């Protein structure tokens, strides 16, 4: 799972972005200012940094400079300013891309994936039993043969694969997938989608070995 550091001091934007990124299968840490961001970068390793230029504490340019001096983690600037100076200064500092606020979620996700691909930080494939999931191509293979999942079935599988070994409650699953592809998902339809997914990926859907039911708690993939 790709790890992203979001450096942004607007709580509403942080909440919205964290929600979007987690639904796309990313792990997200946040920092509201320059000092916290630099402390997180010292302690943790990230695949990409989403960085607001205008911060209440410090500024994005200083954070970008420190990041690039440390280990060249890819940086995408988030900026409300479309002025040429900010964009050029960011690129001169080593930024990999920039997105103007307000941004469209699908465009932002596409730019993140493009930067990860360009910088050689593609997510590796994930395997369990006879199943292989390739997030880069959004492809799923069973016994070497590609199987076709709906958008919501694929997102549900990705949530499970990104939380291997963890028990996921039905409430947590609903939180992760409720608005994917514009579909409304409630507790009853979640049951339907889990059954459909099992029908496609399990050798014996009546006795699943990949998506296991943890009675009274939820579901789990892997040990």
TrEMBL record:
Pfam families reported in the protein's UniProt record: Response_reg, Trans_reg_C
Sequence ranges assigned to domain Response regulatory in this UniProt record: 3-116
Residue positions, PTM 4-aspartylphosphate: 52
Gene3D superfamilies per UniProt: 3.40.50.2300, 6.10.250.690, Winged helix-like DNA-binding domain superfamily/Winged helix DNA-binding domain
Sorted UniProt keywords: DNA-binding, Phosphoprotein, Transcription, Transcription regulation
Keyword hit for Lipoprotein: no
Domain OmpR/PhoB-type residue range list: 123-223
SUPFAM superfamilies to which the protein is assigned, alphabetical: CheY-like
Keyword Transcription regulation among record annotations: yes
This protein's GO CC annotations: cytosol; protein-DNA complex
Database matches in SMART domains: REC, Trans_reg_C
PANTHER family for this protein: ALKALINE PHOSPHATASE SYNTHESIS TRANSCRIPTIONAL REGULATORY PROTEIN PHOP, REGULATOR OF RPOS
Main function: May play the central regulatory role in sporulation. It may be an element of the effector pathway responsible for the activation of sporulation genes in response to nutritional stress. Spo0A may act in concert with spo0H (a sigma factor) to control the expression of some genes that are critical to the sporulation process.
Name the UniProt record assigns to this protein: Stage 0 sporulation protein A homolog
Provenance organism: Proteiniclasticum aestuarii
């Amino acid at each position: 799972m790709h790890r992203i550091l979001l450096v942004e001091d607007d709580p509403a934007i942080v909440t919205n972005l964290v929600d979007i990124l987690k639904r796309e299968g990313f792990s997200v840490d946040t920092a509201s200012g320059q000092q916290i961001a630099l402390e997180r970068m010292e302690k943790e390793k990230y695949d990409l940094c989403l960085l607001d230029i205008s911060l209440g504490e410090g500024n994005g340019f200083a954070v970008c400079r420190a990041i690039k001096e440390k280990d060249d983690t890819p940086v995408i600037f988030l900026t409300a300013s479309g002025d040429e100076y900010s964009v050029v200064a960011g690129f001169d500092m080593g930024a990999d891309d920039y997105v103007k606020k307000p941004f469209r979620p699908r465009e932002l996700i596409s730019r993140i994936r493009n930067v990860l691909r360009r910088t050689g930080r593609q997510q590796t494939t994930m395997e369990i039993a006879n199943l292989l999931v390739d997030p880069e191509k959004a492809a799923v293979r069973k016994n070497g043969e590609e199987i076709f999942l709906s958008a919501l079935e694929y997102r549900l599988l990705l949530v499970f694969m990104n939380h291997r070994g963890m028990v996921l409650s039905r409430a947590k699953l609903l939180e992760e997938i409720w608005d994917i592809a514009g579909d409304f998902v409630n507790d009853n339809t979640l049951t339907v989608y889990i059954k459909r997914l099992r029908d496609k990926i399990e050798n014996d859907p009546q006795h699943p070995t990949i998506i296991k039911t943890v009675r009274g708690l939820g579901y789990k993939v892997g040990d």
